[in-house]
Every structure is written in structure tokens, then in C-alpha cells.
Design brief:
The chain is α+β, with helices and mostly antiparallel strands and 145 residues long. The protein contains two helices and five strands, in the order ααβββββ. The protein starts with 10 loop residues before the first helix and ends with a strand.
């Protein structure tokens, strides 16, 4: 039995509409996901760079130099590297752990280090399609002085 050609006239248009809309939805999801990964990488890099700066310029920086404050670290290390991020949605937490007077080795050979922990949080709103997501990264660096 042979189908009438006229009854299949609009089927290609309907198939195209279904497939193209599904394809565009998948492409949009991939694009938003890639932007989210990029934002997370920015937050992680900020945490690493800020922890590095704080570890080098920490409380026992060097004789004759003043110790940096958390506000100095924020302005010097975090703000210049926070390109394309809205700083009003960025939170910055720094924790010093000066448990030991200086870096030293115990009697069993275990090295004890003072550390600085930097946590950077960013509230990311993924292009108005989804709810807000908090991206968070923590970096711990040994004090180097």
C-alpha cells in the first residue's frame, strides 16, 4: 500500500521544529554549564593567589616590614585579579594559624608549619535561567618568611 504524498507534506517542518528546539536547549545548557565552570575556576584561582600572597606577606613577614592586614590582602591580591566577577557578590575569609613560633622540625622529624587559609565565595546567578549558586573555594598555604 502506497501512502499519499500530500499527507506527508508538513512532517519535515514538524520534525525540524522538534529537533531544533531540543538542540538549542541542549546547547544553551552546555553554554551555561561552561560559564559556571569558568566562574568556579576564577574563584579557585583567586583563593590560591590570595593565600600565596598572604603566606609571603604574613605576620612574620620580615624584620622592618609591617605586617599586612586582611584589608590590605583583599585590595592587593584579590581585587586586581577578580576580573569579570562582581565584587559585591564576593566574600573573602582569611584565617591565620600561627600555632608555632617559626617553621620547625619536631624530634621525630615532622615539620610543623604555620599556615594561612583563604576562602573565597561567589554568588553566581547563571544568566537569569536558574537560581543562584554559591561557588566556594578554600586554599591553605604554608607561611614562607
Amino acid at each position: 500500500m502506497r501512502l499519499n504524498h500530500r499527507s506527508r507534506r508538513g512532517i519535515s517542518l514538524v520534525e525540524f521544529a522538534l529537533v531544533s528546539s531540543l538542540t538549542m536547549l541542549i546547547m544553551l545548557g552546555l553554554l551555561v554549564g561552561c560559564v559556571g565552570i569558568f566562574r568556579y575556576q576564577q574563584v579557585a584561582a583567586l583563593a590560591r593567589e590570595t593565600a600565596r600572597y598572604a603566606s609571603v606577606h604574613g605576620s612574620d613577614y620580615a624584620q622592618g616590614h609591617t605586617s599586612v592586614t586582611d584589608a590590605d590582602i583583599y585590595q592587593t591580591a584579590l581585587v586586581p585579579k577578580a576580573t569579570l566577577l562582581d565584587l559585591s557578590r564576593t566574600r573573602f575569609i582569611i584565617t591565620w594559624s600561627p600555632k608555632y613560633p617559626v617553621t620547625r622540625a619536631d624530634s621525630d622529624g615532622t615539620i610543623r608549619l604555620n599556615t594561612v587559609t583563604v576562602t573565597v565565595e561567589y554568588d553566581w546567578k547563571p544568566e537569569y535561567f536558574f537560581s543562584s549558586v554559591t561557588l566556594k573555594s578554600t586554599s591553605v598555604a604554608a607561611m614562607c618568611y
